[in-house]
Amino acid sequence: MSELLAAFIFFFAVIDPIGTVPVFIAVTRGDDAKFKRKVALKAVGVSALVLLFFVLAGEVLLNAINIPLSAFQIAGGIVLLLFALSMIFGESKPETEIKSVRNSTETAIFPLAIPSIASPGAMLAAVLMTRNTEYTWYEQLITSSIMLSVLVIVLLLLLLATHVHKLIGDSGASIISRVMGLILSSVAVNNILGGIAHYFGLSVVA
């Protein structure tokens, strides 16, 4: 049960559903309820397809170009750490991505689906949390279900975006985003250390 909760918190941190709400509001400002619902459904649907692609094909692509998973885990951990530090010390996720709305035409895809929901960190997490060498197909299915459950939360928050935003405000979303960044940074460091240990462990055996 604790492992399931840890996986849920991990995906919640990298996807950051609450941080997506201000981005969605900025994207759909002035639009009617029907259009907002359509954008929310499309954005979450595209995000689910992108993340499931990385679950199914991410490791296969790495093997095809002869990159060991431990190296990807280290690199992924570093990227996650940089992503987390930018959430903590730089502009928060909502502040950064709202700026990109001004030049966006297909708003459901960019910046909502990518990079707000299916962020680079989420794509890396999808691969790292479903490694074929460490997890059975059943465990990968459970992890994928947890990831999709976080996306369902994203969809619900987007559909209730106006009410959520009134409740927490821009400052509340910024604070939550930074807290998620702190959690994510600890996960990233753990991935880096795990990748290093796994890499040198394989080297010793060889």
UniProtKB/TrEMBL annotation:
Q: Which GO terms describe its cellular component?
A: plasma membrane
Q: How does it sit in the membrane?
A: Multi-pass membrane protein
Q: Which UniProt keywords apply?
A: Cell membrane, Membrane, Transmembrane, Transmembrane helix
Where it sits in the cell: the answer is: Cell membrane
Q: Which InterPro entries match?
A: Multi_antbiot-R_MarC
Chief localisation class: membrane
What is any Pfam family matched here? MarC
Annotated transmembrane regions: 6-27, 39-57, 69-89, 109-129, 141-161, 182-201
What family name appears in the similarity comment?
Belongs to the UPF0056 (MarC) family.
**NCBIfam families for this protein:** NAAT family transporter
* Official protein name in the record: UPF0056 membrane protein
What is the source species? Pseudoalteromonas gelatinilytica
